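User: tokens in, sequence out, please.
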């Protein structure tokens, strides 16, 4: 598998980098000049929306994708004949979802 690198300075990609073309610690032209790391760092700040999204993501990560207790309850109700479909409730839910999507 080869990796394509892209320079941020607007130059075109260097092409695939593989075991035979591993980058070295010299200048981009390969003239033997060592590349020094950038000494200064720029602070990064997140917007309030990004912080809120990060918090929500963390909360959602803790919630199981499927409520297995609810699944088992529905299975049991179906098996015993206690599960009833309410077409009006389904239609109402679909209409409300459609309204929310259009808003």
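Assistant: Sequence out:
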């Amino acid at each position: 598998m080869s990796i394509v690198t892209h320079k941020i300075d607007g130059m075109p990609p260097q092409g695939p980098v593989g075991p035979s073309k591993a980058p070295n610690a010299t200048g981009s032209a390969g003239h033997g000049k060592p590349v020094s790391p950038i000494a200064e760092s720029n602070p990064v700040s997140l917007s309030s929306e990004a912080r809120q999204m990060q918090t929500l993501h963390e909360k959602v990560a803790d919630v199981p994708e499927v409520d297995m207790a609810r699944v088992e309850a529905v299975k049991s109700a179906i098996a015993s004949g206690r599960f009833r479909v309410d077409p009006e409730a389904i239609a109402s839910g679909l209409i409300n979802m459609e309204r929310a999507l259009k808003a």
